[in-house]
Amino acid sequence: MKLAYALLSVSGALLAASPATSFAPPPLHVTTKQSSRSTSSSSSLQIMSTKAASPNMPSHSPATSLPNQIYKWRGYDVRYQVTGPANADHTLLLVHGLFVNSDHWRKTLTGLQALNDELHNDDSDNEKKSIRIYAIDLLGSGWSSKPSKTDPIAQAVSGENGRFTDCDSTCYREANPTTTNKMRRPTKIRSASTLQNTPLGTASGGNRLATSLELRHPLKSPYNFYTWAEQIADFTHDIIHSNHNDDNQDETTTASSSSSSPPKVTLVANSIGTMSSLQSILDEPQLFNGCLVINPNFRELHMAEVPFSSLTMPLVRQVQSLLRNNGHGLFASLAKPSTVKEILKEPYAVVDAVDDELVQVLLDPLLTPGADDVVFDTLSYSAGPLPEQQLS
């Protein structure tokens, strides 16, 4: 029943449990920043695309009142929000879950800013620790670009490229060679595309063995945890570190040079943001302090998690294919405020948190062109890393 619910409740992909805390932001200037990161010898942004974020994106988030800012990543638009003092003591990057967006962190963003304001106004002698908070829309989610998975540019930016030792020349369509050769990937942990006899945990705290763990997206889609992991790492390098360095250049200080070094970032992840964040830390640990995980997604549709997979996965694949090819009407019928509100009440422990504002800020980006294709594409992602494997 759980498997059928996960496959057929398309908008049920909104079901990341609430990253609730109650955490208002001072007005910021809207800016557009391009990636300047050089991971090998060239910028990661020399690939250009015509796929931009939706022109319907509001200038400010209606949930947080923060400006919606755009990061130009590998030719695509990535929306993000930021609040908190420059050069704060701590830096957080909030990574959302399945088919939601950075507005899902609305209470966290506003609540942490309120905490910053409280610390700023506190005249006691207690040590004050300010926080800079970023929240990002992953590629294909929220107000970020949603390219077709078959777009040569999207294929070229996939984080699975160059990831697997047995797949560099056999597993992927060749993208435009001129375009591909201009792009360099971040550091990444490489492995075979299928892991054998991988030890995993159980819900009861026991152990089990996954005899075959497939890491590649079955559709060769760019919407995979490796792409999002590289997006997180590039954003940390290009935006968070760049903002820190820009602020330092604007200040006159007598502090030692070490005090102005880019901050290590703490990731806060929900649902499928967990696997993306953990993979980013595995790939480039020098960028991060660690990851706070809130209600991770345990990949119930992963072939290593589906019971009796040799028997059930063919049926699962058929349903996934049916949804991709014929499910757009179903998606349109479910993508209504009343339906989304009822779906969201399922994972939310505090049902009153599912208010009209939450429903609207999560639903509006799902009505933009390409969003339904990303939904079905990701529902077909019955492979990729598992959190137990990443933590082993």
From TrEMBL:
InterPro entries: AB_hydrolase_1 (IPR000073), AB_hydrolase_fold (IPR029058). Residues 25-63, 174-207, 241-264 are annotated as: Disordered. Residues 1-22 form the signal peptide. Residues 92-333 form the AB hydrolase-1 domain. Pfam families: Abhydrolase_6. Residues 35-44 have a biased composition (Low complexity). Residues 45-63, 190-201 have a biased composition (Polar residues). The keyword Nucleotide-binding does not apply. Keywords: Signal. PANTHER family: ALPHA/BETA-HYDROLASES SUPERFAMILY PROTEIN (PTHR46438), ALPHA_BETA-HYDROLASES SUPERFAMILY PROTEIN (PTHR46438:SF12). This is AB hydrolase-1 domain-containing protein. It comes from Skeletonema marinoi. The lineage of its organism: Eukaryota, Sar, Stramenopiles, Ochrophyta, Bacillariophyta.
